[in-house]
Amino acid sequence: MGQRIADLNESERKWLRGNFELAGAIAQTYGLPVEPGDKLDPKTLDVAWTAWLGSHSHGADDPNPYINAFGIALGQHLVDHLGLEWKVVQDEGGTEMAVWGKVGDVLVFPANLVGKRYVARTTDFFEGIASQISDRVRQVQGQSPAEPRSGVGRFFRRGGQ
């Protein structure tokens, strides 16, 4: 099966909103000055993630709702600052939310990025990864369609970073 990229339906948009709201609530829990509906910047995500990860007991609670919430907040930051769009991506690995950009065929799986860092118990990565993705996306989008892309358009896949 090849990769299929589709628009979100209303249920998926609602799921994204719920996860984004959860990320804000987590940030508030740890004393960050976040109001409901605020956009979470990577620095705020770093502080909230570090606090949450420090209080989380592996095996005691399901981490997936938190991983999704932080991933969605990161993805929304990329959408807001890079002109990307939320999409549903389906391939042999399953179905997952991703942010996509038509120019350069950019595809980023933010929840997967966060999940990998959860497993490694990595902290202070949101600012760095957001900057790295932003730089790379702008570089890819700056190329004309006639220029070779040497596979740089699709990055930060589920099996990659």
CATH architecture: Up-down Bundle
Gap between N and C termini, in Å?
Answer: 23 Å
Number of helices: 5
Q: How many E strands?
A: 4
Radius of gyration: 16 Å
Mean pLDDT: 87
Tally of distinct domains: 1
State the CATH topology.
Four Helix Bundle (Hemerythrin (Met), subunit A)
Largest sheet: 4 strands, antiparallel
Strand order of the largest sheet: 1-2-3-4
Strand residue percentage: 5-15%
Give the SSE string. Answer: EHHHEEEHH
Structural class from helices and strands? alpha+beta
Highest-level CATH class? Mainly Alpha
Approximate helicity band: 40-55%
Net shape: globular
Unreliable spans are: 146-155
Question: Which terms would index this structure?
Answer:
161 residues, alpha+beta, 4-stranded antiparallel β-sheet, globular
Give an overview of the whole structure.
- α1 (10-29) crosses α3, α2 (42-55) packs antiparallel against α5 (126-142) and α3 (64-82) crosses α5 (126-142).
- With 161 residues, the chain is an alpha+beta fold.
- The chain has helices at residues 10-29, 42-55, 64-82, 110-120, 126-142; strands at residues 4-6, 85-91, 94-101, 106-108.
- The chain has one domain (7-142): Four Helix Bundle (Hemerythrin (Met), subunit A) (Up-down Bundle).
- Helices cover 50% and strands 13% of the residues.
- The chain is built from 5 helices and 4 strands; from the N terminus they run βαααβββαα.
Give me the secondary-structure topology.
Elements: E1 4-6, H1 10-29, H2 42-55, H3 64-82, E2 85-91, E3 94-101, E4 106-108, H4 110-120, H5 126-142
Antiparallel strand pairs: 1-2, 2-3, 3-4
